[in-house]
Amino acid sequence: MKVQEIHNRAIEFADLAFMKKFNGLVDEAKELFLQAFKLEREAAYAAKEQNIGEPTISVLLKSAASLAINCDNYIDAEKLICLALYGDPPSEIAEELRNLLEELYFQRHLQFQGISICTTELQLVIAGRGVGYGMAKSNLVFDKLNIFEKLTLRTAERRLGKPFRSNGDVAKVIKMNFQPYLSVPRAASLAFTIRFGGVSQQTKLEGFDNSVEVIEDLVNNISLVNLGEYESLRGNIKDEVYFRNFISLSKELAPDGEEINLVGLSIVRNGEQKDVQFTRIRSEIQTNIFEESNIKTNQDQHIELIGHLFAANEEQNNIRLKVEKEGNYSITVPDGLNDIVKKYWGEQVRIKGTFLKPRVIKLSDIDPG
Amino acid sequence: MTLDIKEIYQGLPGLSKVSGNHLYESCVVCLSRHKHNSDGTYFSVYGDKKINLMLVWDNIFDEQLDRTWADQFYATEHGAVCLAILIALKMTNYTIIEKSARKNGFDYWLGEKDDILFQKKARLEVSGIFKGTEKDVNKRYKIKVIQTNQSDLLKIPAYIGIVEFSNPIANFGIKK
Q1: Counting CB atoms within 10 angstroms of each CB, which of A116, A264, A295, B94 has the fewest?
Q2: Residues A245-278: tens digit of each pLDDT
Q3: How far does the CA of residue A167 sit from the closest CA of chain B (Å)?
Q4: What is the domain class of A292-368 according to CATH?
């Protein structure tokens, strides 16, 4: 059979596999991915043997490696990527191959590698250009850990039935029982064990013994954000303010696609490791889903501004933005977004929102400027 | 000029009906969520050439389709691929679509029927915006150009298509 024909058959199987995956039929999808992978690898090897030339060979090898990853065949994927890089791929394809290899190695970093964690612990792994093997830019690490702590404490408060706390500190008893504690970092790209509620497995106060459920809830909901399954997430977090807060904090935890490509979370349940690879980059996380009326809103009412965040009135949930050559704007921060705004205090930011009146904007999204 | 979105699965060379239907559904979902008219919605394409199209499609949007395509980001990206492929075949001399797998889907290539697989082909790089402005579209276009700009001489030609759905427009052109 010709290379083209084998490739076409591989793509037919891949089409069906992605369809099954889209419909949540994971096992059936993997079977089809396996068949697609075998055919695409055959096409790639045939193209190489017949010396068809570039970019055909590297594109087919990359395609076969991607299909191998989709059926969890990481060893073959690694071999195919290396084989493609060993050839003479065009620079664009070479760059994509390196990115794929990086993702593949992240899988390996997620393994505990001799470390055992218990049900009240979680492994957090970050990887990307800003993270070397066992070393990372300090601000990247502190930022992710800080956001992770906020997510944990908000999840604990929600699960304990507390109304959303718009201002003030976390209750002492909650902090005592759910405060994350950090292990020494491990080189993997950079991994931490995070334990909830204490430096040792201490006895919990009555009603506060559910840190296992809090961790599981947190990891499951982050997985839903990663998959873009906001309706399921809304089912898990019924309170609109907590829902908005969770999405906006998850967006801050998400990789930026530049310095951090991957954030991994691993827990152990019933003796088995459960991983969530948070790969959806922050710009792909929708913050407008909790503003359904947006679609009906007049386009002119939407605004995007870059400016300096300089003053805040916590009681009124209000901040000020200084925009060069335009002056100051008053920004109203809806409940749930205040955790994020604090992070950008005194910094250059890009905000999105809608005009409530001239120079008064209701915030819907905030990013570094 | 009318652009019937159904063309995507009614005989596009190089694209299976299964795959074409998936892209068609995502595009219909994006347009329908903005309440656009399936009997005719203006679609302005600019960039290398300016062309005004009238989009038509079968009104298949219902609750089930809405639930199936709950992930708006995924729907937007696929819907954009659908329109970008149709634009590419209308506005370039390429006649077929080829696909290679990537981790979460496919890369799309434009080519001639009798060329060798992926050779003398152009990459089609697409991005979608569910709700934005022309400024957002142009900004995304520039980002795509920078992202794919390589200093190497072995460049693969690429067409870039950025599609916006709220007031349907597309910036479509070859990467220079």
Answers
A1: A116
A2: 999 999 999 998 888 888 988 888 777 778 888 8
A3: 32
A4: mainly beta
